[in-house]
Amino acid sequence: GAVVSQHPSRVICKSGTSVKIECRSLDFQATTMFWYRQFPKQSLMLMATSNEGSKATYEQGVEKDKFLINHASLTLSTLTVTSAHPEDSSFYICSARGLGTSGGSYNEQFFGPGTRLTVL
Amino acid sequence: DQQVKQNSPSLSVQEGRISILNCDYTNSMFDYFLWYKKYPAEGPTFLISISSIKDKNEDGRFTVFLNKSAKHLSLHIVPSQPGDSAVYFCAASAQDTGNQFYFGTGTSLTVIP
After folding, report:
1. Is the pLDDT of residue B6 over 70?
2. Do B43 and A93 count as a contact with CB atoms less than 8 A apart?
3. A41–B contact, CB cutoff 8 A
4. pLDDT tens-place values along chain A, 120 residues long
5. Which class for A87: exposed (0-12), middle (13-18), buried (19 or more C-beta within 10 A)?
6. Do A105 and B49 make contact, defined as CB atoms within 8 angstroms?
7. Which of A50, A111, B26, B44 is the most exposed place for a label (fewest CB within 10 A)?
8. DSSP 3-state percent helix, strand, coil across chain A (nearest 5)
9. Burial (CB count within 10 angstroms: exposed 0-12, middle 13-18, buried 19+), residue B100
10. How far apart are CA A101 and CA B48, in angstroms?
């Protein structure tokens, strides 16, 4: 199956700093990448959808100036949490969909392992 | 507004028995449904899917049933194995929303040996 990696898997930072999370599709070209956020015991909440080479589409309530998304290539998308605060502490997961992916559906998404962000 | 709901946060089942996980949705435009399995500290992995033109899809020990009139789907695992212990998320999407996924809150399944 298609493999998606995320880096780092865990990050701890001080309040006010910026953190960059990378999402890579390892064996396929991801035309679309999605960024999710998961709070404890809650569902995955879609933050934004990004298509390669174009601006990301943010969900309602997600600050685009705080959560910067760049999808510069067909295998890499980055999420930068700017001026992070403790309330940004969460589990961030990316997923990818694209060309050459195996699986049973045209709209199947392949998920990365997630990044645990803790802001002190 | 939670469009996809999993009302049981946890479920315990004896090994060898059937596990039934339930999911309800509110948006009648959803036309594709998926189940994902998630282990701690890992991302979700795809398990099984069903489109709205079907009412049942089976893959080995896993079967998903869709009841469109009730806006309800369920995942049956039989026989359940200890390795099935994980959090299961159902997700729904609709073509006219750009295939965005809407996830339920998950059900933590524990299979007791």
Report:
1. yes
2. yes
3. yes
4. 678 999 999 999 999 999 999 999 998 888 889 999 987 777 788 899 988 888 899 988 999 999 999 988 889 999 999 999 999 999 999 998 876 544 444 456 788 989 999 999
5. exposed
6. yes
7. B26
8. 0, 55, 45
9. middle
10. 16
C-beta of residue A80 within 8 angstroms of C-beta of residue A31: no
Find out whether the peptide bond into B79 is cis, omega within 30 degrees of 0. yes
The strand pairing partners of A58, in sequence order, are A48
Chain-chain contact of B101 with A109 (C-beta, under 8 angstroms): yes
Residue of A nearest to B89 (CA): A43
Report residue B76 as tokens. 């049956």
CA distance B11 to A110: 26
Show contacts of B5-10: CB within 8 Å, 24+ apart.
B5/B104, B5/B105, B6/B88, B6/B89, B6/B90, B6/B104, B6/B105, B6/B106, B6/B107, B8/B107, B9/A41, B9/B105, B9/B106, B9/B107, B9/B108, B10/B107, B10/B108, B10/B109, B10/B110
What does the angle CA B108 – CA A35 – CA A63 come to, to the nearest 5 degrees?
115
Q: Which residues of A11-50 are buried (b: 16+ CB within 10 A; e: fewer)?
A: bebeeeeebebbbbbeebebbbbbbbbbeeeebbbbbbbb
Contact A25, A93 (CB under 8 A): no
Residue A27 and residue A1 in contact, taking contact as beta carbons nearer than 8 Å:
no
